[in-house]
């Protein structure tokens, strides 16, 4: 019964115009923020400690916008997953940097796309997956009904999914070997043994090492791709840019620095409520400043 109700709500939300959804999302974001003390506290702390606000007035403005943008991100999911693919991709008003995909494809070593939890990150793989084979790493949700909806929504066009486990990683390696593209969320906290502690907005965050290993072993170029959410439900601007790596230095740190730059474009569109700084099970916490002195 619960799964039926949620599916019905998803279908109803997907039937609404995107502008209406974003207006509803603003309200939902405020309700969620008021209803969950833990959610609100994490959002406030992560945003404040990013030091992206110039002063207290700017911080209050950014926090208010962040709450609204998080709500928009929640309610646009049914629209992105359930609407026809052509209609969803048509909401991309501008695509900046497609020439980087063409240049990377010409190398024949595959492409590694990195998409942070910023803006409408769901639309990036659907848009790219219209044009070239793309295998995306993902974590299965706890709800079985959502797993089905998610897979049906994400696996369209030439886009396919690989589970975040050993078998899924093998699929990523195979895709690169065929000269195809893969996609990862670089700011998702990995499991034990799959990351290292490096700074993210001047705080240690357990950061995945998989993307760097894939790039080094395959020679595939790495591209950042992110979709800015436009106001009033007017769609999205897609941005693609190269991320050259120096393998003599920490690759996770280079990736985090690139993400910081993207997030600073519009800090409110980042998912500050995500528990980015948690200590995964079995992982030793990062050393304190006193321990490193």
Please explain how this structure is put together.
- The structure is a single chain.
- The protein has helices at about 1-15, 20-35, 35-50, 55-80, 85-90, 100-105, 120-130, 145-155, 165-175, 210-220, 250-265, 290, and strands at about 90-95, 110-115, 135-140, 160-165, 180-185, 195-200, 205-210, 220-230, 235-240.
- The protein is an alpha/beta fold.
- It has one domain.
- A seven-stranded mixed sheet has the order 1-9-8-2-5-3-4, with helices on both faces. A two-stranded antiparallel sheet has the order 6-7.
- Helix 1 packs across helix 4 (about 55-80), helix 2 crosses helix 4 and helix 3 (about 35-50) crosses helix 4 (about 55-80).
Can you tell me the overall shape? globular
Number of helices: 12
The level of helicity is 40-55%
Whole-number tally of structural domains: 1
| Order of strands in the sheet with most strands | 1-9-8-2-5-3-4
Structural descriptors:
293 residues; alpha/beta; 7-stranded mixed beta sheet; two-stranded antiparallel ribbon; 12 helices; 9 strands; 17% strand; globular
Furnish the topology, listing elements before pairings.
Layout: H1 2-14, H2 18-35, H3 37-49, H4 56-82, H5 85-89, E1 92-96, H6 98-106, E2 111-114, H7 121-128, E3 134-138, H8 144-154, E4 159-163, H9 166-177, E5 181-184, E6 195-200, E7 203-208, H10 210-218, E8 222-229, E9 236-242, H11 251-263, H12 289-292
Helix pairs in contact: 1-4, 2-4, 3-4
């Amino acid at each position: 019964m619960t799964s039926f109700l949620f599916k019905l709500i998803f279908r109803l939300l997907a039937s609404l115009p995107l502008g209406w959804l974003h207006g509803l999302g603003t309200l939902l974001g405020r309700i969620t923020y008021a209803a969950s003390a833990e959610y609100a506290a994490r959002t406030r702390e992560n945003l404040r400690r990013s030091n992206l606000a110039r002063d207290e007035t700017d911080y209050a403005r950014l926090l208010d916008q962040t709450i609204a943008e998080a709500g928009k991100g929640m309610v646009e999911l049914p629209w992105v997953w359930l609407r026809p693919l052509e209609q969803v991709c048509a909401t991309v008003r501008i695509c900046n940097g497609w020439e980087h995909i063409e240049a990377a494809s010409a190398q024949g070593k595959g492409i590694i796309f990195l998409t942070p939890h910023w803006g409408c990150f769901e639309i990036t793989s659907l848009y790219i997956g219209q044009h070239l084979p793309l295998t995306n790493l993902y974590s299965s949700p706890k709800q079985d009904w959502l797993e089905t909806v998610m897979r049906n929504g994400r696996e369209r066009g030439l886009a396919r999914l690989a589970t975040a486990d050993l078998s899924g990683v093998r699929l990523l390696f195979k895709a690169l070997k065929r000269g195809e593209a893969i996609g990862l969320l670089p700011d998702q906290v990995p499991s034990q043994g799959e990351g290292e502690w490096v700074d993210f907005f001047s705080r240690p965050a357990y950061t995945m090492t998989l993307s760097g290993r894939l790039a080094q072993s395959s020679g595939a170029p790495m591209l950042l791709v992110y979709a800015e959410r436009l106001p009033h439900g007017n769609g999205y601007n897609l941005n693609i840019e190269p991320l050259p790596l120096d393998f003599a230095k920490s690759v996770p740190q280079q990736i985090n620095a690139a993400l910081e730059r993207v997030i600073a474009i519009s800090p409110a569109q980042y998912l500050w409520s995500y528990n980015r700084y948690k200590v995964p099970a079995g992982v030793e916490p990062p050393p304190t400043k006193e321990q490193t002195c």
